[in-house]
Amino acid sequence: MDKIAITGIGIVSPSGINKRQFWANIKAGRSFIKEITRFDASKYPSHIAGQIDELNKYSNFSERLLKKIDAFSHMALIASELALQDAGIDIKNEDPNLVGIFLGNAIGGWLYAETELRDLYIEGREGVSPYMASAWFPAAPQGQVSIYYGIKGFSKTIVADRASSLMALGYGRKVLNKNKLNMILAGGMEAPVTPYALLCCSTYGALSKNNAKPQEAYRPFDKKRDGCVIGEGAGIVVMESIARANKRGVRPLAYISGYAASCDGVDRINCGADGKELARAIKLALSDAQTNIDEIDYISLDGLALNLWDDAELNALKSVFSQRVKDIPISCPKSMFGNLLGASGAVDMITTILAMEHSLVPVTLNLDEPSIKDFNYVTKEAKEYKINKALVISRGRGGINSVLVVESNTPR
Amino acid sequence: MDIKIKVKEILSNLLKVKIDELKDNSSLEASIGVDSTEMVESVIALEKAFGVKLSPKEITKSSSIEDIEKVIHSKIG
């Protein structure tokens, strides 16, 4: 399969909206995990998150539209607009039948849905907004982006828990390779900082309860880890063929050269402890990218910050990369702004592309004492590394494994 | 009570459009590009405001403000 060019990046995250602001905060290793202020979350076991407070400040969308959509669609619209601007694409000049949208989401639009469900039980069916029908479900952002830009090409929403958006990128690359679309907006969005979504994430058992010290709570691969912290946002990129990018006179920001997925198939919630299936997905992705283990310069980790998941991830790396794990820099930058669940993989890929551009590996925050030694963890401060090829790992409940190979625009 | 003014105020607040965009003689579809979900919301809001029952066939995307005024006027007498 051919490499696909990434020519535009749109990021909406607690660490910043737009790639410049986002990278400045990531580079500096700043934490954006705070106590939740959107609603009274004080009685929840975990009441901290990466929350975006100023979404409207970055939005040019009409009040008429915003009243019909959930925050996750709003985030997807902003990220799409930023990605198109970054790619220098005016969608009006595109053939709408040859533009596609591939987005990943795990939980849907609960901020909207919760309010309407409350109204249903208090006021009856007439109290529910008719927009509820099109606002809450995981494919709603895909629909809203397509309506806003008049996009009419083959599109899809992927729901695969936290692996959703990385899968959407992999799927988008596959479709683009069939030459049936000219370009794709791909990535994911998630807005889980709502009472019901937070409750579901809590009962799943993956959230840190270190409410007293929010900025220290998310500590993947550290001995004192006790789960992740949720965050909200969207990461969307413009994907197109290298030939088309060249024709437009645009230098790609990076390339997607390999992708693979696998399933552990051992438990409804947990992953396999041995990391065997993740290792298989990594090998398949490397093979797809025609890349050997010596060529990988950086690995962006899933890092759920639970003993089983983190250890399994490192087991997989050890089994694939053997002694090279001592050399390859690895990190989990989402420890700075929270786990964006279904959007996390796309945001991780964007972080990786920015790391390539700046030759700087961002940190895993709070990794003071690794539970497993002998890996080249980047902690405390970002480190200079020339990155030509990188792996991005994104995993979901029940042991969904997805792995992407990203290549820089300046090959060695 | 001026039904027409009240209808315009309700639809303007509800659909987040300017009052002068709501034309007396043009259909809601032509004047503000109303969609089917907005029509559902509008009918419910008008029913509540005027205390009448309106069927989706009586008020549609093709209705103008004057058409809506006539329907409501016939119901409240």
What is the secondary structure topology, with strand pairs?
The complex is a heterodimer of chains A (412) and B (77).
Chain A: E1 4-13, E2 16-17, H1 19-28, E3 33-35, E4 48-50, H2 63-66, H3 71-87, E5 99-104, H4 110-123, H5 132-135, H6 140-149, E6 156-158, H7 164-177, E7 183-190, H8 195-204, H9 214-217, E8 233-241, H10 242-248, E9 254-263, H11 276-288, E10 298-300, H12 307-321, E11 329-331, H13 344-358, E12 360-361, E13 376-377, E14 383-384, E15 389-396, E16 400-408
Parallel strand pairs in A: 5-6, 5-7, 10-11, 10-15, 11-13
Antiparallel strand pairs in A: 1-2, 1-8, 1-9, 3-4, 7-8, 9-16, 12-14, 15-16
Helix pairs in contact in A: 3-6, 7-13, 11-12
Chain B: H1 3-15, H2 28-32, H3 36-50, H4 65-76
Helix pairs in contact in B: 1-3, 1-4
- Percent helix among the residues of chain A? 25-40%
- Give the SSE string of chain A: EEHEEHHEHHHEHEHHEHEHEHEHEEEEE
What's the architecture of chain B, going by CATH?
Orthogonal Bundle
Number of helices of chain A: 13
For the termini of chain A, the CA-CA separation is: 21 Å
Order of helices and strands of chain B: HHHH
What's the β-strand tally of chain B?
A: 0
User: On the 0-100 scale, what is the average pLDDT of chain A?
Assistant: 96
Low-confidence stretches of chain A: none
CATH architecture of the largest domain in chain A: 3-Layer(aba) Sandwich
Find the structural class of chain A using helix and strand composition. alpha/beta
Q: Quick one: how many beta strands of chain A?
A: 16
Q: Which stretches of chain B are low in confidence, meaning pLDDT under 50 for 5 or more residues running?
A: none
* Strand percentage of chain B: under 5%
CATH topology of the largest domain in chain A: Peroxisomal Thiolase, Chain A, domain 1
Shape of chain A: globular
